[in-house]
């Protein structure tokens, strides 16, 4: 039991070093007017992490996953259609919010009487609680220490009170850095460093919601198409980028194989590859003979068999094939 307790504390300590959650709390703490309402954000993270851990431990998450899979299998058109529709609406709403925010910021900069310090945002405790829970659910997919702890806990077959106790210890350690951040931030409230940080975070915060909404729309759209066609999301993204269907992301240079669309790594200080393999290169050029540069073909006569042939890129080539070269070189 002592070994389990030590493992719980150690694992939760490493899991609590979450730069994403810390950055989110710093941003919100700089935005909200009543700093004590940050407790609802921390509480949302802690309760969401605890509830999901208990759901995974007792198999409730697996049951919900199977239920969703059955509904999706029974009504695929409605489910994927709703996901794609929600993705399109979210993407358009995100783009609209980004444009609106830029126009608003530009108007504020042009106005000489505009205040230099932005007024704190009024976020209700319920909103902060929901934001904390939502951030926790999103990040839970990468919480490998938590999953390892739950797997270890299942081997002890503890009663519910003890299981709940260890879960509470783990989650308290998980939110402990956020609690310490809250007190440290309030202790330094009013200092020059905090004021400067709040000004910077105030400018960034205007774009947080629009960007998140747009990203949710993109993920929903790509995910719905990929699930419906039984292919990966990267395949959908590659197809959309090659055909100019990727919206805002289309402006970003993406390197893919000309033939199959597989991703290519960017080469440093070397000529960039256009194909992922020789087979793709040969297949693509075979399908596009009209794009071959005929000016680099040179007429030649084989020095061994006397056959006329076209030499590609080499004006001094002597033999039409490797077999003629071997025969002339070694007399075979």
Structural account:
- The protein is mostly helical and 332 residues long.
- The protein has two domains: 2-251, no CATH class; 293-330.
- 66% of the residues lie in helices and 3% in strands.
- The chain is built from twelve helices and two strands, in the order H-H-H-H-H-H-H-H-H-H-H-E-E-H.
- The protein has helices spanning 2-16, 19-31, 38-57, 60-74, 76-110, 125-139, 144-154, 160-187, 192-229, 233-242, 278-287, 322-330; strands at 297-301, 308-312.
- A two-stranded antiparallel sheet has the order 1-2.
- The model is unreliable at 110-120 and 248-252 (pLDDT under 50).
What is this structure's SSE topology?
Blueprint: H1 2-16, H2 19-31, H3 38-57, H4 60-74, H5 76-110, H6 125-139, H7 144-154, H8 160-187, H9 192-229, H10 233-242, H11 278-287, E1 297-301, E2 308-312, H12 322-330
Antiparallel strand pairs: 1-2
Concise synopsis of the structure shown:
By secondary structure, the chain is mostly helical. About 65% of the residues lie in helices and about 5% in strands. It has a two-stranded antiparallel ribbon with strand order 1-2.
């Amino acid at each position: 039991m002592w070994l389990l307790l030590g493992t719980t504390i150690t694992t939760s300590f490493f899991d609590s070093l979450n730069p994403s959650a810390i950055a989110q709390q710093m941003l919100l703490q700089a935005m909200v007017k009543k700093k004590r309402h940050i407790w609802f954000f921390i509480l949302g993270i802690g309760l969401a992490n605890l509830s999901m851990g208990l759901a995974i431990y007792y198999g409730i998450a697996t049951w919900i996953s199977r239920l969703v899979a059955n509904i999706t299998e029974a009504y695929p058109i409605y489910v994927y259609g709703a996901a794609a529709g929600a993705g399109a609406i979210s993407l358009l709403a995100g783009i609209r919010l980004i444009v609106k925010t830029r126009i608003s910021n530009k108007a504020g900069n042009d106005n000489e009487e505009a205040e230099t310090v932005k007024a704190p945002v009024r976020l209700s405790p319920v909103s902060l609680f929901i934001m904390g829970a939502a951030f926790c659910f999103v990040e839970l997919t990468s919480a490998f220490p938590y999953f390892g702890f739950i797997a270890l806990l299942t081997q002890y077959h503890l009663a519910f009170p003890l299981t709940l106790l260890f879960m509470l210890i783990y989650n308290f350690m998980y939110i402990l850095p956020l609690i310490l951040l809250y007190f440290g931030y309030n202790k330094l409230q009013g200092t020059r460093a905090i004021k400067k940080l709040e000004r910077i975070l105030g400018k960034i915060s205007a774009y947080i919601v629009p960007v998140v909404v747009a990203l949710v729309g993109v993920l929903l759209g790509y995910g719905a198409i990929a699930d419906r066609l039984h292919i990966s999301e990267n395949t959908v993204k590659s197809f959309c980028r090659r055909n100019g269907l990727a919206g805002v992301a289309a402006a970003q240079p993406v390197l893919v194989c000309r033939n199959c669309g597989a991703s290519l790594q960017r080469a440093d200080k070397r000529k960039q590859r256009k194909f992922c393999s020789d087979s793709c290169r040969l297949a693509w050029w075979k399908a596009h003979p009209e794009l071959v540069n005929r000016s680099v073909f040179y007429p030649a006569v084989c020095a061994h068999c006397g056959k006329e042939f076209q030499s590609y890129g080499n004006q001094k080539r002597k033999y039409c094939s490797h077999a003629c070269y071997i025969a002339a070189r070694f007399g075979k």
